[in-house]
Each structure stands twice: as structure tokens, then as C-alpha cells.
Amino acid sequence: MSALFDLTGRTALVTGSSRGIGNALARGLAAAGATIVLHGRDPERAEAARRELASEHGEDRIHAVAFDVTDPEGAAAGVAEAEAKAGTLRILVNNAGIQHRVPLFDLDPADWDRVIRTDLTSAFLVGREAARGMAERGAGKIINICSVQTDLARPSIGAYTSAKGGLRNLTRAMAAEWAASGLQINGIAPGYIHTEMTQNLVDDPEFNSWILGRTPARRWGTVEDIAGPVVWLSSDASDFVNGQTIFVDGGMTVVV
Ligand code: NDP
Question: What would you give as a GO molecular function for this chain, any one (predicted)?
Fold first, then answer.
């Protein structure tokens, strides 16, 4: 591998990496040489993911923590635990997220709050905890996993769309405040990716054919499609990229 993309000796925490996109991002970062802290809400699922990845890369390089990303105290303790286990963080991927499909007229305010806290507030909470140490050391990369809903609005996911739009601007706000301390903060906005979150959409023939027609690449994205861009944004190769959100969507957001 080119030294430009070599992450050997750098520790990465990937939130929501017990499964789905986050797990593929952790795998990509591990393949590039990073020491990994896997994470989920459910400790057993995070530990199972750790055991699986450690069987490929060794126990020394693969660790796991579990905490609720919506809880300010949990986020602080979780980042401290990650650093105690794996060393100071050089890379944080804010990936944990949920979706809730209900039209705005019927949306319970408690569900609105839960989505905003999980998909937006979490990046502020975990990001700020990780960034304090990164800023002291003068180096760090934060990648916020947005969505095509950052820019578009599908009916019935209004809270998700609002959170992901906010996450793009939080990415800009973090870069505006922390770039001078040697941090790069960027976003990746995936298109429709086949995971547990989207399984019901994959199984819906009407939605499935809408996606294939709406995506110039004529396919669903895979979790691996997102890993390369995240490795690049985690590496020295992207050191002058800051506050940007890059769409990885098979061209979905460039056609009407
Ligand atoms: P999954 O539902 O497959 O996985 C979600 C992950 O987030 C799990 O590891 C889960 O942990 C964790 N998580 C959820 N809530 C919390 C919480 N409160 N505290 C801690 N961890 C939590 O999702 P995807 O892999 O599909 O999505 C990952 C990210 O990518 C999300 O931010 C999503 O919005 C975004 N995205 C997904 C797209 C897609 O098409 N799939 C498209 C665009 C963006 P646990 O296993 O313990 O529940």
C-alpha cells in the first residue's frame, strides 16, 4: 500500500460498527493498518464483531466498547474507555444511526427527539470528546456519516432528513472551529446501501425498482463502497480537505 494511505500506528473509533456500514468501515481501516475500536449499543454484538475482526488482524489491534451515543456521560466515558484500551484516538468515524419511517403529521415528538439525538447530537457529543485530545496533540480526523437525505427529502423520514442535513452543517462547524488545531473533519453521504436498516426497502419490489431507476449506477450500494472514501479521508492523502461532505451514491444526487 502507498504510504499516503497507510494508517499503521493510528487508532480509529468507528461508532455503530457492530454491523452494517460501520463494520465495513472498521474492516477497511483495519486493512489499511489502523488499530480499531469497534462500537455498538449492545455489548454482546460489539464483542462478537471484535472477536471476528481480531481473528483476522490479531487481538492487539482490535478492541470493542459499547455505549449509547445519545448519552453525554456515556459518550465521555466511552471515548475514555476506547483510549484506555487502544491508545489515543487519531480517527473517529461518527457512523451510528437509526431511521424511523412515519409521515410528519403522525410523528410522535419523542420519536423526532430520538432520531435527532441518535443521528445528529451523537456526532456533537462523541466528536467533541474525541476532538479535545486530538486538538491537544495537533492531529486528528473525524468523518461524519451523512446520507443522500442530507441534500434530498424522501417523504416519511422527516426527522432523519433533518438530522442528516444538520450533520452536514455540524461537519462545517467543526472544521471552522477545529481546523486550526490540526484536525480535518469531513462527511461522507452514502446513497442507498443494502444493510439491516434498508432490508425492508430491498424486499419491497416497487421501492427496489424505483432505486434502480433513480440511481445512474443502476444498483444498490454495498457497504464496501463506503470504505475506500473513509480510508482516504482518514489518511494523510486528504490533509487539505476540510469541512466537505462527499456523496458516494452512484450518481443519485446529480440527476433529477
Ligand atoms: P445499521 O442499522 O445496520 O447499524 C446501525 C449501527 O448503529 C449498529 O451498530 C447499532 O448498534 C448502532 N447504533 C444505533 N443507535 C445507537 C445508539 N443510540 N448508541 C450506540 N450505537 C447505536 O445501519 P447502517 O449500517 O445501515 O447505517 C450506518 C450509518 O449510515 C447510519 O448513520 C445511517 O444513517 C447511514 N446511512 C445508511 C444508509 C443505508 O442505505 N443503509 C444510507 C445513507 C446513510 P447495535 O448493533 O448495538 O444496535
Answer: glucose 1-dehydrogenase [NAD(P)+] activity
Task: Specify the ligand 1 atom closest to the Cα of 42.
Answer: 47
- Ligand 1 atom closest to residue 19's alpha carbon, by position in its atom list: 9
Mean pLDDT computed over 163-172: 98
Q: How far is the CA of 180 from the centre of ligand 1 (A)?
A: 31
pLDDT for 224 equals 97
Pocket of ligand 1 (CB under 6 A): 16, 18-22, 40-42, 45, 68-70, 95-98, 118, 145, 147, 190, 192-193, 195-198
* Domains within the chain, CATH numbers bracketed: 3-249 (3.40.50.720)
ipTM metric:
0.99
What residues act catalytically? Answer: 160
Determine the distance separating the centroid of ligand 1 and the alpha carbon of 116, expressed in angstroms.
13
The whole-model pTM stands at 0.98
Kindly report the three-state secondary structure assignment for every residue of the chain: CCHHHCCCCCEEEECCCCCHHHHHHHHHHHHCCCEEEEEECCHHHHHHHHHHHHHHHCCCCEEEEECCCCCHHHHHHHHHHHHHHHCCEEEEEECCCCCCCCCHHHCCHHHHHHHHHHHHHHHHHHHHHHHHHHHHHCCEEEEEECCHHHCCCCCCCHHHHHHHHHHHHHHHHHHHHHHHHCEEEEEEEECCECCHHHHHHHCCHHHHHHHHHHCCCCCCECHHHHHHHHHHHHCHHHCCCCCCEEEECCCHHHCC
